[in-house]
Amino acid sequence: MDLYSGVLSKLIEEFASLPGIGQKTAQRLAFHMVNQPKEKVERFASVMMEAREKICYCKECFTLTDREICPICADEKRDHSTIMVVETTRDQAAYEKTGKYDGVYHVLHGAISPMLGIGPNDIRLKELIQRLEKDVDEVIIATNSTLEGETTAMYLSKLIKPTGIKCSRIASGVPVGGDLEYIDEVTLLRALEGRQEL
Amino acid sequence: MDLYSGVLSKLIEEFASLPGIGQKTAQRLAFHMVNQPKEKVERFASVMMEAREKICYCKECFTLTDREICPICADEKRDHSTIMVVETTRDQAAYEKTGKYDGVYHVLHGAISPMLGIGPNDIRLKELIQRLEKDVDEVIIATNSTLEGETTAMYLSKLIKPTGIKCSRIASGVPVGGDLEYIDEVTLLRALEGRQEL
Q1: pLDDT tens readout for residues A151-195
Q2: Domain spanning A77-169, CATH class
């Protein structure tokens, strides 16, 4: 599209490269941007770079954070003997939002998917197993209720069982095929309550 | 939302401040961003600032461009005696895409709207009238077919008529490929009124 001047086309292209943003939306966003006060655009740009710069993995649970140890892992009031295993930081945030879970997390950053060629070594599984050497009472597997999530849960439970640590799976009150991130809090809590030992 | 670390929340907030981007989409975009290679994020940020910095109004037609005179106005092959009046640069781009219009444009950057308190002096109307002092044969009013667009068209035609310059309005009717059954009554009546002999 050379309908717009060079730098505007470039900005539209950048927006269109974002996931779920089509050409029309990208145009709308780009025009919005160039009509904003200069300070606002600069703040956006700098926040973007700062986030990319500072965000790293928590050394404990591997969630995305801007500290060495994330606030949840650093919180001594939380129950460090219960670990909830989730696929992504967004899934973690979904459970955090319920405000009822006071254990800690482990973020796998993905799920086992033979289809996509993602094996156990491609996600943060090894790191979870290492954490189990510490004082852990229960591992709650809260991977998504998808094929990949279930596969990961099965694989994980088989790894954990020999250690004697209690291992549970959130209940399938979560609709099959659903993504944790988009599910209402009541359902999330129902699933937590109904967890079953594997 | 303090579910995420400070800088991540800030980035989500920035994305959520964009028009049409909700909280969930903003989260998705922010996570996408921090997972991108650093160069990509830097390029996005710099394109954003560069666009905001360089984009200005064409001195002739007031479209958004990065030059003093936009490529269309600077193009001597185009018919400078025909001016199409549009509300936004995006509307201009829509007509440019057809590839069949070879006149020039005038971008009003809005439309008269008593409801929103936008009067004739708040859009680039004066500048259009000034352009009419040059050698202009026809003004084609291509504002949107909304209440505001129609109001602007009416106002404009009254201004132009005394000058003796030909003044036309793009046709309003059933869109090509449109099914009569799904088209609103006002459009149907407009199409009937505007019927042309075959």
Answers
A1: 999 999 999 999 999 999 887 667 767 777 787 777 788 677 777
A2: alpha beta
pLDDT score recorded for residue A3: 65
Residue B49 forms contact with A (CB below 8 Å): yes
Residue of B nearest to A58 (CA): B5
Note whether A45 contacts B49, CB cutoff 8 Å: yes
Chain A hits for B34, CB-CB cut-off 8 Å, are 51-52, 55, 64
Q: What is the pLDDT of residue B1?
A: 41
3-state secondary structure of B105: strand
Task: Say yes or no for a CB contact (<8 Å) between B8 and A51.
Answer: yes
Question: Domain segments of chain A: what residues?
Answer: 77-169
User: How many angstroms separate the CA atoms of A146 and A68, rounded?
Assistant: 31
Q: Select the residue of B5, B47, B89 nearest A31 (Cβ to Cβ).
A: B89
> Which B residues in the span 95-124 are in contact with A, Cβ-Cβ below 8 Å?
96-97
- Largest interatomic CA distance in chain B: 67
Enumerate the β-bridge partners of residue B106: B85
**Maximum distance among all alpha carbons in chain A?**
65
| Nearest Cα residue in chain B from A40 | B14
> What strand order describes the sheet that includes B79-86?
B103-107, B79-86, B138-141, B166-169
The reply to whether A49 touches chain B by the CB within 8 Å rule is: yes
User: What is the DSSP pairing of strand B138-141 with strand B103-107?
Assistant: unpaired
pLDDT of residue B2: 61
Minimum distance, in Å, between the CA of residue B118 and any CA atom of chain A: 17
Q: Compute the average pLDDT of residues A54-71.
A: 90
Q: What would the mean pLDDT of B56-79 be, rounded to a whole number?
A: 92
Asked if residue B66 lies in contact with residue A8, where contact means CB atoms within 8 angstroms, the answer is yes
Amino acid at A153: A
Asked if A18 lies within 8 A of B8 by C-beta distance, the reply is no
Token code pair at residue B64 = 């958004």
Strands (E) located in chain A? 56-57, 64-65, 79-86, 103-107, 138-141, 166-169, 196-197
Among residues A62, A70, A106, A101, which one has the least CA distance to residue A85? A106
